[in-house]
Specification:
Interacts with PEX19. The protein is mainly alpha-helical and 361 residues long. It is 73% helix and 2% strand. Helix 4 (100-143) crosses helix 7, helix 4 packs parallel to helix 15 and helix 9 packs across helix 10. The chain is elongated, with a radius of gyration of 32 Å.
Length: 361
């Protein structure tokens, strides 16, 4: 019997060898596939956790941006009102001086200038901090990454402080230059408009459009008001030549590169449009028809339904700074913070600077 089996095996030896090899190959191939599948699942899980951590950090960073904007509005308002002090003029008017008309003319220019500067500078503040804090946020994410190759932090606290101090340009020289530009445009548009002339909300909107067109078409790029572009100024802001100072200058230059992008111009203009639209919404409250007037107005007619003398519009315009630069979340500030284009741009900035390849910089 055993002899028969042995003869059978010898006759079919090649088949047995091939079958054995095939079965063994399938077994090891299965093991290899299982390992690959396991590795793939582990990588997917790791990537998911990393992405979730990154998303959580980004959302936390946006809340920090919002709180920082609100904390910076009081000093911005103070800087504006110090340079455009309408209160001194209104106090003089209460004394019934002989040059009352002249003071009213000054108040007209100052009030419109103050409010328009408030809209522009608040929009700039929101966008500037979105860019700066998302650049820092991206680097902080990399500093805290498990796989970070470099032992030295990319955004140490000293660098963050130096870098964010560059906002003083917007509250200082940038604001002063913006006031000069805006005041000239306001004078060109309103100097010849008599105080007794009545204006509808639509006409006020037209005046603001003319003023904006002159400002935004000027020789000075609007981003200049946000951050000094002179290399010496950047070095001065960095305050020296230490390693931290070099990193600060690099961050400032990276910020300037962001400002030079077409997307940034689109986002900044979107913020301006949103800001002036909200300003007009605020002014509309003062142009409502009298309570007893029940005549229906079409939406297109409502902007011209009521007219007010310019002398009555001036104090309304003058008081808008309190809504524009309010440290408590007003509709004006909320509109700017919730602007989808600003949020999307902030996400792109964070994505750029939190990407692992930036570790090689």
């Amino acid at each position: 019997m055993f002899s028969s089996v042995w003869n059978f095996v010898k006759r079919h030896k090649r088949k047995f060898i091939f079958t054995g090899a095939l079965v063994g190959g399938v077994y090891f191939l299965g093991k290899y596939a299982q390992k690959k599948l396991s590795d793939m699942q582990e990588k997917e899980a790791s990537d998911y956790i990393s992405q979730a951590r990154r998303q959580f950090h980004f959302e936390s960073n946006q809340r920090t941006c919002n709180m920082t904007v609100l904390s910076m509005l009081p000093p911005l308002k103070e800087a504006i009102t110090n340079q455009l002090n309408s209160e001194s003029l209104t106090a003089l008017l209460k004394e019934k001086p002989a040059n009352k008309l002249e003071i009213w003319e000054d108040l007209k220019i100052l009030s419109f200038t103050r409010t328009i500067v408030g809209v522009y500078s608040t929009c700039m503040l929101v966008v500037l901090l979105r860019v700066q804090l998302n650049i820092i946020g991206g680097y902080l994410y990399l500093d805290n990454s498990v796989g970070k190759s470099s032992p030295s932090p990319m955004a140490p606290p000293e660098v963050q402080q130096q870098y964010l101090s560059s906002i003083h340009h917007l509250l200082g020289d940038g604001l002063t230059e913006l006031i000069t530009v805006v005041k000239k445009a306001v004078q060109n548009a309103l100097e010849s408009v008599p105080l007794k002339q009545s204006l509808s909300l639509m006409e006020v909107e037209q005046q603001l459009s003319w003023i904006r067109a002159e400002i935004e078409a000027g020789e000075r790029n609007m981003s200049w008001f946000l951050l000094a572009d002179d290399q010496n100024a950047l070095a001065d802001q960095a305050c020296g030549l230490t390693e931290n100072d070099v990193v600060t200058i690099r961050l400032l230059n990276e910020t300037r590169d962001m400002f030079d992008s077409p997307d940034f111009s689109t986002v900044l203009n979107s913020s301006f449009n949103r800001g002036f639209s909200r300003l007009l919404d605020n002014l509309a409250e003062f142009f409502r028809p009298p309570p007893g007037d029940s005549a229906p107005f079409a939406a297109s007619d409502s902007l011209s339904a009521v007219s007010l003398p310019l002398a009555k519009i001036i104090p309304i315009i003058n008081g808008q700074i309190n809504s524009i630069c309010s440290e408590t979340p007003s509709h004006f500030v909320q509109d700017l913070l919730m602007n989808d284009q600003v949020k999307e741009f902030a996400a792109n900035v964070y994505e750029t600077f939190s990407a692992p390849q930036d570790l090689q910089k």
